[in-house]
Amino acid sequence: MEKLFFISRFIVVVAFVVSVFFWVSKQTTGKEYEPNVCPEVSVDFAITLYSKPAPFYSAEGELVEKQIRHDGSQLLISCFPGFDLPRKSMFVCKDGTWVAEDGEQELPTACRPGYTFMQKFVIFTFVFVTLLATFTSAKAVYDECTGQNRLRSGARSTLFGIGNIQYKPLTRYSASASIAEMGNNAGFCMIIETIALFAGFSPHFFVFLDTGIWYLNPAQETMKNPGQAEISMHVVFGFTICCVMGIMAALIKYGKYGGLAREVHKVLGTYVIPPVCVAFLLSAVWAELQLPGSIPQKIARNMLVIWCVVVLYNVVTSAFVRDIAAHLHYLVALWGLICSAGALRGMTIVWGYLLGCEYGYGANPCLGIVTGTAFSTLLPMALFIYLNGTWNKRYARKAFLFAAYYQLLIPLYVKYLFKPCYPRMNLHNIYHDYAFALPREFYSSEEQYHEHFMQALGH
Fold it and tell me: 203 near 349, Cβ under 8 Å?
């Protein structure tokens, strides 16, 4: 019994000594590091990440590790694709509070929708071409109204290097116009074609800037094109052509014969415009051929490339042989064909809206194809020939035939023109986001028809 009592006393004494030792050790090594911790941050449409601060040595020479959100930790806000912060600043944890490096910015609560590189490119080129067309149009009207175009007595024009050309007002001529007059008329008609292009494509551009998606029916935000990357590349080539053509027009308008401006114009027209035009056409066909379509569609899509290449060949060869009159006629025809894509798509939406098409504004584009391209291609070409008085010239009739490409396709579209709102095919098989129910005949079963009908009601 005494032995057991002795052992218990011994254990108590040892425990007391050990406790005193650890207490003394703690007091002598100083207080434990107590960091300031910043709160967690939640930002809508973003991922928040925290860095781990660098360790430090305490007064006693011990290495102290810090953790995330301790003093010195940095906050990284990574916005989702398509979103961005209005101002970018680094936030650092300081005394338990996130502080911006500039000392002024508060913590954001959400990332706002931002612009991708493609959207910024569309904005830049759209504004550039719009300002260029507006300035050119305004200057042409001003010069015509004030008589600034009239050359002083005895002065000669150097347009295209051909002298002895006197100015005449913009009007119809009983005989063929001079080269200088044709140049002015060409600029006027190509501005009309450019306006038709941007008027038709503007809904597509604005919706793309808002959503980042190319829709064939932007008015109702449906018919999402399956080839988004291909369409973006097509737009890049198209805007490149617009910008280069505008620069070339300025070079030929204000450059002197034999000068640097004319040489640059020649280089751009020989080595830049042709390959870019071919790439522009091929990218359009590549994007379109990914979509199933009817035989008339496939004919129109494939023939357009061949047709435009033939016109481009005439544009280049006529310039090399110095047949400037023919060169200008073919150029107006080519530019009209390039601008036709925007006009036909825009007119399709307009007709769908005016007719109240219940199956969607873009269900049947045939009426828009025939009428829209008349404004962008056929009528400007006819006006150009009328102003020049060149109906009796072979190159003028040939250029008019080139410009009438879409009207020559009317026999393929006749049966669709009589029903401008009736779909040509089951659009649900092409555009999986199509928001409208189609006639019963396009569905293989009643269940499929009712399914799309209820989806359309929900939309």
Answer: yes
